[in-house]
Amino acid sequence: MSRSTPLGGLADELGSEIPVVAAPMAGGPSTPELVVAAASAGGIGFVAGGYQPARQLADQIERVRAEAPRFGVNLFVPNPVPVDPAAYRAYVSALQPWADRFGVELPEHPLEDDDDWQAKRQLLVENPVPVVSLTFGLPERESIASLQRAGSRVLQTVTSAAEALRAEAVGVDGLIVQSSQAGGHSGTWTPRRPIDETTTVTLVRQIRAVSSRPIWAAGGIGTSSMVREVRAAGADAAVVGTVLLQTPESGASVAHKSALADPRYRETLLTNAFSGRPARALRNEFTDAFTASAPLGFPALHHLTSSLRRASATEEDPSAVNLWAGTGYREATTEPATAILRRLAGS
Length: 347
Known about the structure:
This protein is an alpha/beta fold. The chain has helices at about 10-15, 30-40, 55-65, 85-100, 115-125, 140-150, 160-170, 200-210, 225-230, 255-260, 285-290, 300-315, 335-345; strands at about 20, 45-50, 70-75, 130-135, 155-160, 175-180, 185, 215-220, 235-240, 270, 280.
């Protein structure tokens, strides 16, 4: 395989051979096996640090470190969206028939946390990894600098030119430019505002016009031609997630994998019904029932619906599962992740 320089100034340090990155997909889809497969393909994969305690994250990092020459870790930056108590109670009541259907208990009161942010950041300071990516918000300069002093390159997820400029101002090493085409949660720092609907190519061009930082483009990328398009627009690499969800290395549920291939699921939409934060998913019964009425409130709604989503997945019933999917979901296949990544890279 011929070596390219997909990551701009970071290529020599990271040793990447292809301009394709396996995205972090928190909550189960990203497994150590998927991260190792990305490295085997000549690229980089990310351990998804979200939704797990620091001790569990440390175990995953060590499993990956033993097999992958290069990899990254993604963290959620605390950027809470407090839920209105009355709206929370109303949503609990609306969800009760679904809870009864799947035999689960719903938390009566909102649960709030910071996803163990400080412990995970300290873990990465004490046990540095090649790359750390940050999403949901911009931490203070010192948090970024502490990771850099430990030897990590720090990339910030941005969804607009304004966010890109703020990230550059606090010294990040690069930008993960995520458009509204991306599956799963939007990395927007202002989740109370409507998400700007734009293509990944357009957003990359907008941010390249104002920033010289390395750009990794994310959102709806599922073919080699799309990889070439975002690179021509100014990205150094393409970040892909949904296209890997059906691979043997993916930890996505059977219900999720099946829905991606099911012709009955014909569209994606942005919804905050599952987590209280905007995210793109396949339209299903749950999104039909609650997208219009669910309140904002992260992480309270994530905790509220988690047992319901798990029960639905356990029964291999996709009706109440958060079927995260980007606009390129039809390109997902059951091939090994290494084969998909190499094909996307044109290797």
